[in-house]
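In the laboratory, one determines a bound structure by crystallizing the protein with its ligand and collecting diffraction data. In a computational setting the workflow is compressed into a single prediction: the sequence and the ligand go in, and a structural description comes out. We illustrate the idea with protoporphyrin IX containing FE.
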Amino acid sequence: MARPLAIVGGAVPGVLLVERFLRDDLGANPAEKLEHFTGTVALVTLLVCLTITPLRRLTHLNPLIRLRKPIGLWAFAYACMHFSCYLVFDQSLDLHEILHDIVKRPYITVGFSAFLILLSLALTSSTWSITKLGGRRWRGLHALIYLAGGLGVAHYLWSVKRDATVPDALGMILFVLLGLRFWRRPNVAQRQTNLSGS
Ligand code: HEM
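The predicted complex, in structure-token form:
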């Protein structure tokens, strides 16, 4: 039940955005609104995806793991929409300008790097890819999602001109999630060894 909910639920921000667009309710600069909204949703969805593993560990609800793929793919879908906004509205699909921007403007380079990571994770999200790559290599590759999150936060921080409260808060959340990911409770055998040693 939770998986279909994640699959359908990921569309909600996009549907709300389209509804506001149709009502002509995107303010004085709809293109900017679309770009900022899709970027923010991509990053927040990515962070939601990163909460699954710690949440599963805390609750021992193993089926939660099945939510990771649809949520991760939604993060990628919003990143694609965000990138498309940039390509069309900011650069009018001028390939030369786009390449120049990616190379010359650090916050675009960082955003593009995050996008390339999300692309590689989306392309290898199938069961076929796990079999082909082998579990160890696949897990190593998919650990790059944390790097994508870090680059996404850095890209956001770099792009804000005034109030950095939201990117700062997202950065803190990512930091906590990283801590939870790499913090392991000592298992029973370890605890017994520690007790007998003390
Ligand atoms: C494909 C490469 C990317 C490009 C070219 C790009 C470009 C941009 C641009 C031009 C802005 C607006 C900056 C401004 O108005 O001053 C922006 C903002 C933003 N981008 Fe990206 N971006 C990319 C990838 C990403 C990715 C992968 C994420 C998320 C994981 C992301 C999240 C954001 C966020 C959160 C904002 C700020 C939104 C706001 O101010 O409300 N971007 N990006």
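The chain has one domain: 2-183. Keep in mind that any predicted model is a hypothesis to be tested, not a measurement.
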